[in-house]
Write a structure and sequence with these properties.
globular, alpha/beta, 35% helix, 5-stranded mixed sheet, 110 residues
Length: 110
């Protein structure tokens, strides 16, 4: 798993690549919570390069979502491929996360 972050004025974009699974979930949790500790902006997680996601990583995303909701925000997933979308639909997480195909215009170069 690889994680990177780009911070804009109104949003933070975290890009995830590789497998998000039980082996990488602790690092994902630490990374995303650290981002939220440091930045109050909206959070976008670009998952275009995520090859695989399991329930432990989905649980991390749910915990991040709840933290964001607590401060009046939501979690936006960017560019999920069809396999990931199917997983989100099966778990009904597509009903709580905002899912977009691309980043908003001003964030793409953040």
């Amino acid at each position: 798993m690889e994680l990177s972050m780009q911070r804009g004025l109104d949003a933070t974009v975290v890009t995830a690549a590789g497998d998000l699974d039980i082996a990488t979930s602790p690092e994902l949790r630490r990374y995303l919570h650290a981002v939220l500790d440091e930045h109050q902006a909206a959070l976008y997680v670009d998952v275009a390069a995520v090859q695989f996601i399991d329930s432990s990583a989905l649980g991390v995303l749910v915990s991040i979502y709840h933290r964001l909701v607590g401060r009046g925000q939501g979690l936006t997933l960017v560019s999920p491929h069809e396999r990931l979308l199917r997983t989100l639909r099966l778990t009904a997480l597509d009903q709580i996360f905002t899912i977009v195909n691309t980043l908003p215009a001003g964030l793409a170069a953040a």
